[in-house]
Design brief:
The chain has about 575 residues and is of the alpha/beta class. It contains 24 helices and 22 strands. A hairpin with a 2-residue loop joins strand 15 (about 355-360) and strand 16 (about 365). Helix 12 (about 245-255) crosses helix 24 (about 555-560). It is globular, with a radius of gyration of 25 Å.
Length: about 575
C-alpha cells in the first residue's frame, strides 16, 4: 500500500529562472524508512515541504502536478489537516520549541487542535521519544539531542502516519545521534510509522534505512534498497555524497584488483569484517604531536569556573577549575558530547561570557574587564549557524562592517581582497542569508578574519554540508593559515578532527579529560567511552580486524592492511 503518491510534480520559487523540482513522480510504501540524499541545492528540503502542504499553501510559487499523502490531495487539504498526516521536524528544530516546559511543548499542537486528550497525547509522545520523566522540566534544561527529541515528540503527538526529519543528527554527538535513530527505528518497526529523513551521514543510512532516494538537479535519479544504493559509489560521489568509509575502502580495493569484482561491497563494519578477512595489519598511522612546548602562549585558562543559572533546580556547572594553555600556531580540535562546554569555552575566550571564578588571559592580559570589541582584533568567533554572522544586505557590506566601524584604512580594498580569497566576488551583492550552505560558510569565514585576528575560533564549521561543500571548507581552512596563526575548531566531525587537527582536547564532566594527538585520544578506549565520542568508521573497521590498528583515513587503512600470504579469495564469503 502506497502512503505517498506523486505524479508529475514541478515547482518553482517566485521569480526563479527555472524549477527547483522538475516533473517528479514517486511512490512511497507505508512503513518505509526512506533516506533522501543529494548535494546541497538539489531540492531535497523543497521536495519534503510539498508533502505537508507548506508548498504551495504557505510558500508560494509555480506548482503543477499532484501530491497525495495518505489519500489526501495536498492542493485540496489545508496545512493544518496535512500536519496530522505528515509530521515535520525541521533542520533548525529549535524554532519548533515554543513553550517553556517539556510536556507543555509536546502537547501544544494537540491543544491548538482542541483535542480533549491533548495532555495524554503529549505524554504518550514523550514516552515514544524517550523523554518520559522529563514532563515538568524546563526546555532549557534539555541537551541538544533531547531538544531534538522534544521537537519530534511535538510532531508525534498529532499521531501522523508519516514523519519527516531534515538532517536529524547534523549537530549532535554520536550518543545523541544513536538515540535519535533508535527512536525512529522503534517508531518505524513497532508503531508502523513511515519515516523520511534527509541525511548526509551514510553510515546511519546503512544501519537504519530501508530505501534511499537520490535527488539530482531537481529530479529523482532513482529509489533503491539501501544496501544496493550505497554500493553505487561512483554515482554517489558524482553527486557529492560520501558513501560509508568501509564501502569506499572495498571499492578502491576492487579497483586495485585486491578484491574480486563480483564481491558485494560492504556497507557496515560487520559486513566489512567478512570482506576484509584476508587482510592483515602491518603498520601504524600515528600523527605525532607538533612540537609546541616552546611556542608562545597566546591564551590561558586559570582555574576557571562557569555555570548557567537555572530557574528550576541547581545551577548547571559547565566548568569547575578549568586550566588550559593555547600556544601560538596550534591547530586544535575541541570534541565532546553535546553540553560538554565546547561553545561555552569559545564564548569565554571572546568575552561573550564571563567566568564565575578564575581568570582568562589573552596574550598575557586578563580579559575580564575588556569589552568584546577590544578583543576582536586579537580573536574572532565564527558561529555555528553562519547566518547569524550576517547583519547587512550584502556579503560585501557584512565583510566590510567590522573594519569600517573601527576605522581600518583601505577597508574597501581589503574587502575586495577577502571576497577574492574566498571566491565570493561574484556573490558580493547577494544577501548572505540567501546563499547556499557552502557559500554561507565561506562568507562567515571571511567576516571572521576581516580584522586579521591572531586566534580564530570556529564552531561546527562542517555541519549540514555535503561532501563537496565540506571539502571546500577544508580547502578554505588550509588557506586561513596564511592569515591567522592559531585556529580552534569545535566539532562532532571526527573525519575533520583526524585530517586537520594537530592537538585534540576532549571536554567532559566540567573540564579537559584528555589532551593529545589522535592516537593518544582515539587509542584510549576509556576516554572514548567516557566522553561519548566516536572515531571515523574506517578506524572502527581497522580495530575490528586488529586491535593494534590506528587508521583514521581510507588511505591509511589501505596502506596499513595488506594481503596475508597464502590467503586467497576462493573460499571467501561473497554474500551477506
Amino acid at each position: 500500500m502506497n502512503i505517498i503518491e506523486i505524479e508529475n510534480l514541478t515547482y518553482s520559487y517566485p521569480a526563479a529562472k527555472e524549477p527547483i523540482l522538475k516533473n517528479i513522480s514517486l511512490q512511497v510504501e507505508k512503513g518505509d524508512f526512506l533516506a533522501i540524499v543529494g548535494n546541497n541545492g538539489c531540492g531535497k528540503s523543497t521536495f519534503c515541504k510539498t508533502l505537508n502542504g507548506l508548498i504551495p499553501h504557505f510558500i508560494t510559487g509555480d506548482f503543477s502536478g499532484t501530491v497525495r499523502v495518505d489519500g489526501l490531495n495536498t492542493l485540496e487539504a489545508d496545512v493544518g489537516t496535512l500536519a496530522c498526516k505528515a509530521g515535520y521536524v525541521y533542520q533548525d528544530f529549535e524554532n519548533q520549541i515554543v513553550r517553556p516546559t517539556v510536556l507543555d511543548d509536546a502537547s501544544y499542537a494537540c491543544l491548538n487542535y482542541a483535542m480533549p486528550d491533548y495532555r495524554q497525547r503529549g505524554e504518550e509522545a514523550l514516552a515514544l521519544c524517550g523523554l518520559q520523566g522529563r514532563q515538568d522540566d524546563y526546555i532549557w534544561q534539555l541537551s541538544g539531542g533531547q531538544t531534538h527529541l522534544l521537537a519530534l515528540a511535538g510532531a508525534v503527538s498529532l499521531q501522523p502516519d508519516i514523519l519527516i526529519l531534515d538532517e536529524p543528527i547534523a549537530q549532535l554527538d554520536p550518543g545523541h545521534a544513536d538515540r535519535i535513530y533508535g527512536v525512529l527505528r522503534e517508531l518505524n518497526e513497532k508503531h508502523g510509522k513511515t519515516i523520511i529523513v534527509i541525511e548526509h551521514h551514510t553510515e546511519y543510512i546503512a544501519d537504519y534505512c530501508k530505501h534511499v532516494m537520490l535527488m539530482r538537479d531537481g529530479t529523482i535519479a532513482w529509489k533503491l534498497p539501501a544496501a544496493e544504493a550505497l554500493r553505487r559509489v561512483d554515482e554517489l560521489q558524482a553527486c557529492n555524497i560520501f558513501p560509508p568509509q568501509v564501502t569506499l575502502a572495498a571499492h578502491r580495493l576492487q579497483r586495485q584488483n585486491r578484491l574480486p569484482s563480483d564481491c558485494p561491497l560492504p556497507t557496515t563494519v560487520q559486513q566489512g569484517k567478512k570482506v576484509f578477512a584476508h587482510l592483515r595489519y602491518c603498520n601504524g598511522d600515528g600523527k605525532s604531536r607538533a612540537d609546541a612546548e616552546d611556542r608562545e602562549t597566546v591564551a590561558q585558562f586559570r582555574d576557571v569556573g562557569v555555570s548557567y543559572r537555572s530557574v528550576k533546580g541547581e545551577d548547571r556547572v559547565v566548568y569547575s577549575g578549568l586550566n588550559l594553555q593555547i600556544r601560538k600556531g596550534e591547530k586544535i580540535a575541541l570534541i565532546g558530547s553535546n553540553g560538554a562546554g565546547k561553545s561555552t569555552l569559545m564564548k569565554l575566550m571572546v568575552g561573550l561570557l564571563k567566568p564565575d571564578r578564575g581568570e582568562i588571559l589573552l596574550n598575557g592580559e586578563n580579559i575580564r574587564k575588556k569589552k568584546t570589541e577590544e578583543l576582536s582584533r586579537q580573536i574572532s568567533l565564527v558561529y555555528q549557524n553562519p547566518e547569524e554572522m550576517f547583519i547587512k544586505d550584502t556579503i560585501a557590506a557584512d565583510i566590510a562592517y567590522a573594519m569600517q566601524v573601527r576605522g581600518v584604512e583601505n577597508y574597501r580594498q581589503r574587502t575586495d581582497a577577502l571576497l577574492e580569497r574566498f571566491r565570493l566576488t561574484e556573490l558580493k551583492d547577494r544577501d548572505g542569508r540567501l546563499l547556499s550552505g557552502g557559500q554561507m560558510r565561506r562568507a562567515s569565514l571571511a567576516i571572521g578574519i576581516a580584522l586579521n585576528p591572531g586566534i580564530l575560533l570556529l564552531d561546527e564549521p562542517t555541519a549540514n554540508l555535503d561532501i563537496a561543500t565540506r571539502k571546500e571548507i577544508m580547502r578554505t581552512l588550509a588557506q586561513i593559515k596564511a592569515v591567522t596563526e592559531t585556529v580552534i575548531i569545535a566539532t562532532h566531525d571526527m573525519q575533520l578532527v583526524c585530517e586537520w587537527a594537530q592537538r585534540i582536547l576532549v571536554l567532559c564532566d566540567g573540564g579537559v579529560i584528555a589532551d593529545g594527538t589522535r592516537d593518544e585520544i582515539f587509542g584510549n578506549p576509556q576516554v572514548v567511552q567516557r566522553a561519548g565520542i566516536r572515531p571515523p568508521e574506517i578506524f572502527t573497521m581497522g580495530q575490528a580486524l586488529d586491535r593494534q590498528a590506528l587508521c583514521y583515513t581510507i588511505d591509511a587503512f589501505l596502506e596499513s592492511f595488506k594481503e596475508a600470504q597464502c590467503v586467497g579469495f576462493k573460499n571467501e564469503e561473497k554474500t551477506f
